[in-house]
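Here is a typical protein record:
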Amino acid sequence: MEGACACTINEMVYILCGRDSSTLESPTSFKIRTLNTDTHQWSQLLTEGDTPSFTACSTCVLIGHCIYTFGGWARGIVTNDVHQYNITSQSWRELEPTDRSHEPMMKNKHGMVTHGNALLIFGGYGCPKVGSKFQEGAGYVFDVQSLLSTLMWTNELHLFDIEERKWVEPVITGPRPKPCAAFSFNRIDTDRVVLFGGRQKEERVNELHILDTSNWCWSGVLLPEGPDDVWPSKRSFHSASTVFDPQLINNNDNKGLNEQHLLVLWGNDNDGEIVSDCWILEIKGKETQHDNSHHYKWRRFQFPVPVRGRTWQSTASVYNTPSVGETLLVTVGGSFENIFINEDPLMADSTIIMRFAILLFYRLSFFTKIVSLICVEDVS
């Protein structure tokens, strides 16, 4: 499958839809698959209720015992619907907004993270509903090469309050990223979200941005801090996930846990070819940013065995407590071939489970190391 979205609860990874042979034939076909990371067993869930209509390029997050989805694409149709999936009852319901005056445009290839009990949604590619208004201060760039003249990239940012079912527009400061899509968008701690890469009009980029959600301030484009710093190449349709639980960074008794590691995997370049390298972004906690050391640093990530690169895959983290000393990063699906010139590209048929060891030294510092890699055959 390709273009799926994924999230985790305990040892289970939930994979929502994605394009495969069934969704190519039926644009409203929707599946939830689960992978038990302890047993490596796949299951496909039977669900009921208001099932979402998208098949790819949506986003999902977990809040409590529910999975929330926003947006997505199916056969050229985009949406801005919000759906809630109750894991206990295995049922869907659509969360109709009580007020649509500040809703985002219909889109896919956007980013979404949690913000307390709200959904934080940024950027993407799509079109506004007839009669809707553009967000003040946001940018919208029309895709002049599209057959549909209304399609565009955006850098709008919205919150959806799941309790009040209400769209909110935070007051943003700092230079926003340019309108973009197909980037990675990850919460790294309780206050900050990292955006990397993506597509801006016809160009793939390798820009790094940080959004501080405590004051809604964008960092602007972050550049290498030293002359010897290495940096990932330009890419889109990559995936990324954090090694440490964002809720634990700078929020625990272990003073060494003040740095997040973000793993960025593969993607495609400006020609649509697979980018074969992977990277880890090491980024320090907010309280360390008054010192003179590097606040963020990229380093190349090497698998212990050869692994074929892919694009349009999904990656999610299964966090254990620091005392357990490990995190699982699970990469599902994707394509091994150029998705822009191949109508039916070769899809990845295995899931990669990466086990990271978290090594603590005198409760003052730590580093991570991949200690095992398992390939699990995907469920059909």
Q: What stands out?
A: Residues 361-366 have pLDDT under 50 and may be disordered. The chain has one helix and 29 strands.
